[in-house]
Amino acid sequence: MSDPQDDSGPSSGAGDREILTSPDVHESPNVAGHTEGQSEPTPSTGQGCSCYIPRRYIMIGMICMGMTIIHAIRVNLAVTVITLLDIKAHEKLGTIEAISNLPTDIWDPSMAGIMHSMFYIGFFCTHIPGGFLSKHVPCHRLFGGCILISSSLNLLIPVAISNMGYKFTLAIRFCQGLSEGPLFPSCYGLLRQWTTPQERGRLGSTVLTGAYAGAVIGFPVAGFITHYIGWQYVYHVTSGVAILWYIIWLFGAHERPSHHPSISNEELTMIEKRQGATVIEYENEKIPWASIFTSLPVISLCVCNIARNFVFILMLTNEPYYLNAFNYSIAENGMLSSIPHILMTVVAFSSGYIADCLMKDNMLNATVVRKLLTCGGFGVEAICFFVLGFQRVGKVVMIFLSLGIGFSGLTVSGWQINHYDLAARYASILVSLSSALGTLGAIASPLVAGHITNAGDKDLIFCWHIVFFITSGVLAFAVIFYAIFGSGEPQPWSEPPPGLKLVQKNDPMARKPYVPYLQTVPLTTLNPDKDSGGVDADRKSYGATAATENAKGYGLETSEKKGLTAT
To answer: In this structure, are 503 and 459 located in the same domain?
Structure first.
């Protein structure tokens, strides 16, 4: 097919890109690929209804619930471990039934550390593949599948501990980790589709808060059930809730707004208009891997993820064991273990509003806000863990533990949402990379804690002081690195390079009629001295040397070499 003509229609408004329709279509498409001027279909529900609930809020709520449930499942073993490590565990239970149901195996702290780390070894193996899958598999199916498989495997853990032995339990934990690897990449993929830049801070922090809320619910529930009923029932209850959530998710979740059968035209139009072209997927677009791997802002996210996972997983897996040194009952232990996470959940949820307020009316730019929240959250946490290295009184320990873990919630709207600032188009890829490397911290912290606290006749609390000094150092390094290299600005590789023709992927699931179109990235940035008449000349040629070189560096072939046409 010949090159597109100059009368191909007005631009879409998506930045400086021009949208060129197929010769069969004379109207210009909007940013979502829908033809302007077409009659809007009447939605099946919501239009003109005062009780209409925005479908993006429903989706965000369901994602948040899924994150809460799966993280509540993760702390099941942390409470069970107390009954496996403490030979006096029977003295800390509340009923004869609970005492009679105690597991018969006896582990040492090193065995517990390996058990916790085995989950994150599996988690590490599927994290980067999970980012790839999130670009090729519907993210809502991937997200729900992670939770369904992990919760099903969770039902096998009591059987494995009681009857199959330590090695079989290790294998199940490894498989659980494998199943949850794509969880965060698929979650960020859903956020990309269902949030707008104006709401991303609030809605993103709401979803990520669900991960922290899991400990708030999981610790007291596991402690209560273990204390009064029996440790194995913890797994039955949490897995049952997860499977029930999945059934609801299966029928109520949709990958993107245009796939939702009951979303109103007003909400769909608002989302598409605010998102612009950042959510459009292209057939011949390739990921700029080299630029991503060498980007210092991306590396700073990886460092923060390592620090966050080192501390967060240390608390998820070992906090009940640490507090057990102060002779609390199992029920008290579960309740006290949740208090720091309650504060963190509140702070994390509030951080989205704090970030949005600070960036409102350009009061502060994204870079300053991300650094302020990240360095402030990690900085206070580092100080509190350093102080914990000198404490031996349970009440004082709870104060500093709560303050440190609580203030870390600020980082949710700091580095954790920063992936969208750097490259919204590749947010799932950035998350898979940073989280995969961050998993190294999750693997290391249980091993370090297990090795150091395997004290024998040594003072157990003193051993924990050593662990906390190491933790404080890890956090301090992250603060310094992110303060120097962190950024909130879109990176040069965050959008396709000039001079490329990008053919939009066919989306047969979209509710509205699909119109294929060709998007061309003009060369005005490479030829700033040309007037508007020169742009047309560039648009017809597609073969400028500068564009070709840029495309090669990006990992794409030029349109002439690919032989793409506007079909």
So the answer is: no
